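Quick bug: N-acetyltransferase domain-containing protein output formatted oddly.
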Amino acid sequence: MPSNQSTFSISITFQASRLPSEVWASFRENPHASNIMFAYASKAAKFPHTATGENVWIVLWDTPDNRSSPSVTFVLSCTTGPLGPYPVFIYTPLSSASLKHAGILPKLLAIARALKTSVPPERVFSIFAVDSIASTFADIWTTETGIPLATSPQYYHASLMCCDANLLRLRPLPSLSGADILLRPAVTSDIANVSRLCHAFAAGSEPFVLSNENAIREATIMIQNNHLWVHEVRPSDREPEIASIVAATRTTDTVAAITKVFTNPKWRSRGCAERLLRHVCQQLLKEKATIILYVAHDNPAALSVYRNVGFVGFTPYSGGRMNESWKELGFDRSRVELGHW
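Here's what came back:
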């Protein structure tokens, strides 16, 4: 009698260009959930890193029975960005409901052991994934390496939201009294002003704070790559100021992700973030089908802005997995080497 028991296997690659075609297909079929990994891997495949081991992708394959072809169940990435190492990300095409029946513990254990053979334990400073995966993997990693979670381990806890051309709300906002407004892509001459806002944004994103030097570097990279827009205010009696910034640094063929929204405290409560975000969405939706972003559970002000623009939580009708919560858990900072994202 044939067995119904599922088996699984692991594959490891150090170059995005060598990721199996089934992984790319899974990314394309789930462009929202995979965006963090898909966007990075797409760029890395075009410009392969020369340093072997700088990046690693670990794929777990499920084979429900001997007659089935293996399918992608999990992909873990441990990669490096322009400002340093990224957290460990784990993507799955399975919904949270499906994960309850997928026997994830032995699979995540196998992934953790594969990661342990691929990178030094101190490289893994945090894990970002759907809640259940993040918590389970963190427990496994602590058991396997002896590195506990940080004293306050939850660095980020958020929901994924989306907006498309049908959802975008084009409501006008009142103009600013005594000042003209210009919504535009950031340019090189904005670097100094933008870097100050990047520095302030990071200051509220412990532990991923930025030095002044790295804030300038981040601003420069985003502007050079055309990933940043600014809300410029031009008062009649003084020099122009940048009131808000919006960044979209992770894009694929069909999806753009908003990765930074920040308003100078001086200009808050005047609609600047909403006005600029709506403008950026209009521009991005000329080429992309959907825009996504994460909103922290403890940031109701941001949630209000995003809803005013037209962002909604995922539903079966928005082509995504609904009501999923994501979190980042950090490990003991005295035992790991902190990166940045």
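Actually, after a second look the formatting is fine. Residues 207 and 281 are 29 Å apart (CA to CA). Closing.
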